[in-house]
Amino acid sequence: MTTLADLLKRRIATTGPITLADYMSEALLHPEHGYYTTRDPLGATGDFVTSPEISQMFGEMIGLCLAQAWMDQGRPNGVLAELGPGRGTLMQDILRATKGVAGFHDALALHLVEASPVLRAAQSARLPNPTFHADVSTLPDAPLFLVANEFFDALPVRQFQRDGTGWRERMVGLDSDTLTMGLSAAAPLALLEHRLADTKDGDIVEVCPALPAIMGQIGERIGTHGGAALIIDYGDWRSQGDTLQALRGHQPVDPLHAPGTADLTTHVDFEVITQSAAPARFTRITPQGVFLERLGITQRAQSLAQSMSGDALESHIAAHRRLTHPSEMGDLFKVVGIYPDAHTPPAGLEP
Ligand code: SAH
What pTM did the predictor assign? Predict the structure, then answer.
């Protein structure tokens, strides 16, 4: 059987090395062999676990935050959207937590941006009448209440290594019959002009080509029509170093080995996220643990704990800790809010 590795090797042998972004894009989304196109990778039996799969409390806090923003903005008709909804768990928890918010479900139509047919099917089974989109460009022009958890870390990036005042691109090529990382010739790059100030020779920076346009479309809708977006991911203010990671069965593996069979992610550059969101405003980036605490996750945890005992209680306490504690997901994951000029930032976040 032909594998994706075979196809990529043939392509590279014919037309030369490809960018890391091209490689990631094929490995994650190839129509026949892509990682996301062919499987549900989430959960204990999959390759990685995300916050909504750890506890229902995550989605509940997000739901209340979005509902509060909706009420603060005068309860407009519009869109409730999610980017990369995985199994649909987060949106299910959002919808359950906001059931009591009068008018919220009627005012907002559910729109999901999802590339994977397998995950679209999972989402359809759990969520009421979603409208699917291949990307954000087709989301309606309307007030937009949006969440994206671990979506941006799955977008392909290019990597550049500094060489003097120029940059060499890290390319995926062939060494005999093995996929291997190489470097293009050094060239100046207008895109990275500003990074000459905070890097030295040999440093690697990552650039996500799709990111500015995606955030631009979200910022355009929120800035013009209202709404709010919560972007949650691991990363920091500015991309620094090689952060490409491949996970299979919860274990790190070689990202160039057996493409299409492991999850590939990189840290998200929150500077680019916020700088691309005009005309909407953005909040400070805030650690996930701080954000969830401000929204009341501990009170919620205590109230849920009252009806639990034994193993269920133990794992509930562990889940709360995992989502919020600085040595677990509390610090590594960051949250940024996008909101319109005339309004206050989403709850739990500061201007
Ligand atoms: N948000 C979920 C799943 C995160 S995994 C959770 O927190 O559990 C990443 C999700 O983004 C998957 O649903 C994947 O299929 C989707 N995805 C990845 N790249 C995409 C792209 N370029 N366009 C649309 N969806 C994409």
Answer: 0.97
